[in-house]
Design brief:
Low-confidence stretches of chain A: 259-271
Number of helices of chain A: 11
Number of strands of chain A: 11
Shape of chain A: elongated
Largest sheet of chain A: 4 strands, parallel
Radius of gyration of chain A: 21 Å
Oligomer: homodimer
Distance between the termini of chain A: 21 Å
Strand order of the largest sheet of chain A: 2-1-3-4
Structural class of chain A: alpha/beta
Largest interface: A-B, 56 and 57 residues
Strand content of chain A: 15-25%
Mean pLDDT of chain A: 87
Order of helices and strands of chain A: EHEHEHEHEHHEHHEHEHEHEE
Helix content of chain A: 40-55%
Chain lengths: 271, 271
Amino acid sequence: MCGAIGVFDSGVGGLSVWREVRALLPDESTIYFADQAHIPYGPRPPVELAHYATSITNLLIELGAKIIVVACNTASGAALETLRATYPTVPFVGMEPAVKPAVEHTRSGVVGVLATPTTFEGVLFRRLVDRFGKDVTIHTQVCPGLVELVEAGHTASAETRELLAGCLAPLLDLGIDQLVLGCTHYPFASTIIADIAGPHVSIIDPAPAVARQVKRLLGAADPTNRPPPPALHAFLTSGSPTRLASQVDQLLGYECQPEGVFWRDNVLRIG
Amino acid sequence: MCGAIGVFDSGVGGLSVWREVRALLPDESTIYFADQAHIPYGPRPPVELAHYATSITNLLIELGAKIIVVACNTASGAALETLRATYPTVPFVGMEPAVKPAVEHTRSGVVGVLATPTTFEGVLFRRLVDRFGKDVTIHTQVCPGLVELVEAGHTASAETRELLAGCLAPLLDLGIDQLVLGCTHYPFASTIIADIAGPHVSIIDPAPAVARQVKRLLGAADPTNRPPPPALHAFLTSGSPTRLASQVDQLLGYECQPEGVFWRDNVLRIG
């Protein structure tokens, strides 16, 4: 999958970004990673999320990704700076709540943002509010359980409708006319959200803008400018990696450890 | 691992080829695959081996391999033609018993070849004998159990010595002065083999010639000449692939099946 677009999220939320990327760039290959062993990301500390994001990015790059889309607002807030520092030659596109277009389009002067607590607590969101929240009122709202419901496939169930009605009511009472979806899982419930919010509230999903940014960065990338990567050697087995590690050590004199968070069942690496 | 040299074998035998490739091409990355779930290849029917070889090649190409070394005589005999037909733009290097140099160097006119039954039964070996066996006598010899002993790390044990002494005795009695190692596992037992065969028998390991062939093909490859591959989309999860498959179907409308012999625990693909 050389030259693929790598996309990851805690689960299937990032697929709402993936589909926009695919629609805009139909000739590009993609690798999507859902970190469903660690979902939900929302309640996890940023340092843990940065660790997962780095492991996933490492895997995606080894699989051939030329650009990484962090299709998760929580992970973007927690890990984007770490990722850019760790992989300075790799272009990254992260998610942030689309506060700017909401502020530009509001007529009521009241904007609502629906996201996870970690997103609201992060520096990325605070910067957005500082930058764009001067002349309008920005109300934040969490919706605990919505990520899990979307993961469970309840994108249009009565349970999801009830949860969303409760979460959206305070924002609607405050007079919002723009609702920013600040988590990539939420667009999959957008039919219900639009139904509850009514026709006077615009629902803003940043995914199309993210896809355009991916296209821009790919156009700007100069692959000739990159230094050749150092030689890397991977040993894979359809049997036991622990056994292969000891065999490689015995037969070739290379000490290598079964490693890699996600490939641990079939990969060994030596630098 | 874009542009890596892919190398595979039923087990660790191909590492005897890998080390020569690495020594000759130290700046190249490599991906080694040991199909230890299906070892030994020797007793398996060619059609089954061709199936494994195709699956492994597919994986190696997806992981970024630009050239494939079938570092297994048995698999080369059974699958090389299928592989070349299936992947016409990918360069392949296979193994064949080094009958030619043995015939060129023999003074006694008697050459021995040590390999698996499948290798001796294959068309590749028969062609070699037809081509180079006119003026010399070529004796074949199998050595059941040697692959398993090398896999178990018994490259210099009393058990291995006893087995090899039994296998080599008929060839030595026939007056060979060239012994072709026709299985990539055997070079790891070459110290014992040389010890049993004595100083008048040359032991021929084709691995260095295979590494030179890899270098030649890499030099001759013209990447600009290849058509761009069709877009491919992979979905990976650290959780349940069956669940992700149904989620992708539900959320995006793509039917995809957990598939791939080796990645089945964490990959889904759609074409």
